[in-house]
Amino acid sequence: MAEAPRLVRKSSASLHAAPHPFVIIYIGPMKPTALLLIFAWSATAGEYAVLSSGTRLYAERHESDGGKVTLFSNAGSIEMDASLVVRFEPEEYAAPEVPASTAPPPTLKPAGVAELVDNAARKYGLPPAFVRAVVTVESGYRANAVSPKGAIGLMQLMPATARELGADPNIPEQNVDAGTRYLRDLLVKYDHHAYHALAAYNAGPRAVEKYGGVPPYRETQSYILNVLRKWQKQPSTE
């Protein structure tokens, strides 16, 4: 049996290693905390290690030593059995841009949207910076954004999902509250693994269940990486 990936941080601290989502978000009613259990995402060109599970892990470089492969970044390294890695691919694509909307700009001021997002994050025990990153990638903070597939508003809720959550997706307050609640529920569903929760938010829980993890959709994998990179750059308000 292949040995599970082992995370090594520069601090040499002993950290919990998740199956493939190496980002764990702990939900708390008072002060939410988030532990990044994989290296910080780099804006420079790198490569992806494609695992046998279908998961793609970003690294600046890698080294092979016998039956082991080590992925490196400026924040540390992660070691795993070479048998877990199918191949390496160069970083060659950018995350898809949020479709531009022809509707008039939202009446809600950006500062008001940011406050909505932070308040909803604290309400549901999530790191505000994490939810802000999701909103940034989903809609670019445009309350009137509508995707080609029909997702609506700041957190790009599909009409059916909004109905299940009892929200009107066209009302920013309800959109953000329902979207954050849905994100929290997905984190709980997937044992706080951010990779799985974000994959389900983007592609739907059925896709995650079908593939037993992050589905092999290029759009979804790019979406996850984009959110995590944005999260890294967000100022903390905790």
Descriptive overview:
This protein is α+β, with helices and mostly antiparallel strands and 238 residues long. The chain has 2 domains: 6-90, no CATH class; 110-233, Lysozyme, CATH 1.10.530.10. Helices cover 35% and strands 18% of the residues. It contains 7 helices and 9 strands, in the order E-E-E-E-E-E-E-E-E-H-H-H-H-H-H-H. It has helices at 110-123, 128-139, 159-164, 172-189, 194-203, 205-211, 218-233, and strands at 6-9, 23-26, 33-36, 47-51, 56-59, 61-65, 68-73, 76-81, 85-90. Strands 1-8-7-6 form a 4-stranded antiparallel β-sheet, with no helix packed on it. A 3-stranded antiparallel β-sheet has the order 5-4-9, with no helix packed on it. Strand 7 and strand 8 form a beta hairpin. It starts with 5 loop residues before the first strand and ends in a 5-residue tail after the last helix. Residues 2-22, 29-44 and 100-107 have low confidence and may be disordered.
Task: Summarize it.
The chain has two domains: 6-90, no CATH class; 110-233, Lysozyme. Helices cover 35% and strands 18% of the residues.
Main attributes of the structure:
2 domains; 9 strands; elongated; 238 residues; disordered N terminus; four-stranded antiparallel beta sheet; Lysozyme; alpha+beta; three-stranded antiparallel beta sheet
* Annotation field: number of helices: 7
How do the helices and strands follow one another from N- to C-terminus? EEEEEEEEEHHHHHHH
Which structural class best describes the helix and strand composition?
Answer: alpha+beta
Strand order of the largest sheet: 1-8-7-6
Q: What's the number of structural domains? A: 2
Taking the alpha carbons of the first and last residues, their distance comes to 41 Å
Helix-residue proportion: 25-40%
Query: Which residue ranges are poorly predicted, with pLDDT under 50 across at least 5 consecutive positions?
Result: 2-22, 29-44, 100-107
Oligomer: single chain
CATH topology of the largest domain, what is it called? Lysozyme
How confident overall, as mean pLDDT? 75
Rounded Rg: 18 Å
The CATH architecture of the largest domain can be named as Orthogonal Bundle
β-sheet strand percentage: 15-25%
| Count of distinct strands | 9
**Which of globular, elongated, flat, extended, rod-shaped describes the shape?**
elongated
**CATH class term of the largest domain:** Mainly Alpha
